[in-house]
Amino acid sequence: MPKLLRASQPEDAEEERKVRKLAGSRHAPGDWIFRARIISCSWRGLRTTKIAEELGCHPKTVRERIHRFNAEGIDGLGDRLRTGRRPRLTQPQRSKIIALVAKNPPGQLLTEPDGVLRAEDETKAVYCTLDTLAETRQLIAVELQGYGQISEIPVTTRSPLVGSHTIASATSQPCGRGH
After folding, report:
1. Could you count the other beta carbons within 10 Å of the beta carbon of residue 90?
2. CATH number for the 13-77 domain, one of 1.10.3210, 1.10.10, 1.20.120, 1.25.10?
3. What is the SS3 assignment for the chain?
4. What residue spans define the domains of the chain?
5. Sign of CA dihedral 144, 152, 88, 142
6. Which pTM value belongs to this model?
7. For 95-119, what is each residue's pLDDT tens digit?
8. How many Å apart are CA 43 and CA 66, to the nearest integer?
9. If phi over 0 gives left and psi between -120 and 50 gives alpha, with beta otherwise, what is residue 56?
């Protein structure tokens, strides 16, 4: 007969409080909430098959999560580091590029409070292209290893025809808030 698998008892009241709070949370990451619910159900005395039934997952998932919690404690509820190619852009670099593309280009006409259309700089481009991004990257001090990922960054633009937000690449649509 197989041995009954249960989550180890909490090390202290603080660990139990954290796991139970996480299991009932609505704003924490969903995978952490799900894993905390598995542990909480185990603490209530439910077997792995019953926990899997209640949470809508496979019993093997429940067993794996309980084993990991027993080995690592509350830290075992999180994700492990993943393998694979590291991104060429860091998150701050990516954020700067997205902020740059979301701004109105210097050559785009904007309506002033007095109703007159004016461009910030009439000699500059009206649309964002890879060339204008390349020119501007020195201004924001972001060193890129190539243009490849600039065109992969989604840009939210406002469609002038429908008035709804669309996703476009930096090379195919005007930057910022198109009017």
Report:
1. 11
2. 1.10.10
3. CCCCCCCCCCCCHHHHHHHHHHHCCCCCCHHHHHHHHHHHHHHCCCCHHHHHHHHCCCHHHHHHHHHHHHHHHHHHHCCCCCCCCCCCCCHHHHHHHHHHHHCCCCCCEEECCCCCEEECCCCCCCCCCHHHHHHHHHHHCCCCCCCCCCCCCCEEEECCCCCCEEEECCCCCCCCCCC
4. 13-77, 91-168
5. positive
6. 0.50
7. 877 777 777 766 777 788 888 887 7
8. 11
9. left
Angle in degrees, CA 174, 168, 90, rounded to 5: 100
pLDDT-based confidence at residue 50 (cuts at 50, 70, 90): very high
The two structure tokens encoding residue 154: 């989604």
Report angle CA 20, 22, 26 to the nearest 5 degrees: 125
Both tokens of 122, joined, read 């009439």
Check if the beta carbon of residue 179 is closer than 8 Å to that of residue 160: yes
Give the burial string for 103-118 (b: 16+ CB within 10 Å, else e).
ebbeebeeeeeeeeee
Query: At residue 150, what is the residue type?
Result: I
At 146, the amino acid letter reads G
